[in-house]
Design brief:
mainly alpha, ABC2_TM_bact-type, antibiotic resistance, transmembrane helix, cell membrane
Length: 275
């Protein structure tokens, strides 16, 4: 008996519903993995909390914030943004593992929406990012971090962090599709960590040598860090450079630019798999 796959919906609304339904199915696959194998999720959250405690207490006593202020209040917004950046590694690893195991090809051979795999991956990673933010916010509140400018601006700050994470998703999906196997992710990690630390997360750029401070200020992460500090009302706001004085604007423009560049590259690379 021959099974005939149903024809794809012909209307735009039907195709959208098809994509959303199949994308949610792929997302549920990842959620089930978290429930059945929670070790990876727990380790990821524990690592994030550990970094906050290590830098906040182990090194925090030796750090001073220009203009004064509690170093842990200076640190927490940066750590929230940094964890959004480090989540790039999990996106790359998940995409590379599915591709190397043939899971992506099996999805592509099924009568499902062509965008479902990418949409499902994006939804699962954004959900994981929200969970990470909740855990870090709870940790921050426990170590005397404060939101000083009201819930409205705080929600805007969280929105900027998730916007950055959304942009980095497409970079991660593209790199995951480009890398030949999971072992090659280590080569990307070598670059991820220096890019994450060469920012204003741990120290203000004005305390660095001029050339290094300029690089740190123009790192896209630094714009989001500065914008989030401003919206939360935490210390470490300011700077004489143009980009430091327009951090909220750049915290929007950088993610938009990253998305514009890597979204079409990721989609095109996915469409060319197994050709």
């Amino acid at each position: 008996m021959t099974m005939v796959a149903p024809a794809p919906p012909s209307s735009p609304l039907g195709r959208l519903r098809w994509a959303l339904a199949d994308g949610w199915t792929v997302t549920r696959r990842d959620i089930i993995h978290w429930i059945r194998q929670p070790v990876a999720l727990i380790v990821n959250l524990a690592f994030s909390v550990m970094l906050v405690l290590v830098f906040g207490y182990l090194f925090g006593g030796a750090m001073s914030v220009p203009g004064g202020g509690n170093y842990r209040e200076f640190l927490l917004p940066g750590m929230l943004v940094l964890m959004m950046f480090f989540s790039l590694e999990s996106t790359i690893m998940a995409i590379t593992e599915d591709k190397s195991k043939g899971v992506t090809d099996r999805f592509r051979s099924m009568p499902m929406s062509p965008s479902a795999v990418v949409l499902g991956r994006a939804t699962a990673d954004m959900l994981m990012s929200v969970i990470t933010l909740v855990a870090l916010v709870a940790c921050g509140l426990a170590v005397d971090w404060k939101i000083n400018r009201g819930i409205g601006l705080a929600l805007a700050a969280f929105g900027l962090m998730l916007l950055l994470r959304f942009a980095l998703l497409w970079l991660g999906i593209y790199l995951g599709l480009m890398l030949p196997n999971p072992e090659s992710v280590a080569a990307v990690q070598i670059l991820v960590w220096p890019l994450g630390f060469l920012t204003s997360v741990y120290a203000p750029p004005e305390t660095m040598p001029n050339w290094l401070g300029t690089i740190a200020e123009w790192n896209p992460l630094s714009s989001t860090v500065s914008a989030v500090r401003e919206l939360f009302g935490n210390p470490g706001i300011g700077g004489d450079s143009w980009i430091a004085q327009h951090s909220i604007l750049m915290a929007v423009l950088w993610p938009v630019l990253i998305t514009v560049v890597f979204f079409p590259l990721a989609v095109r690379r996915y469409q060319r798999l197994s050709r």
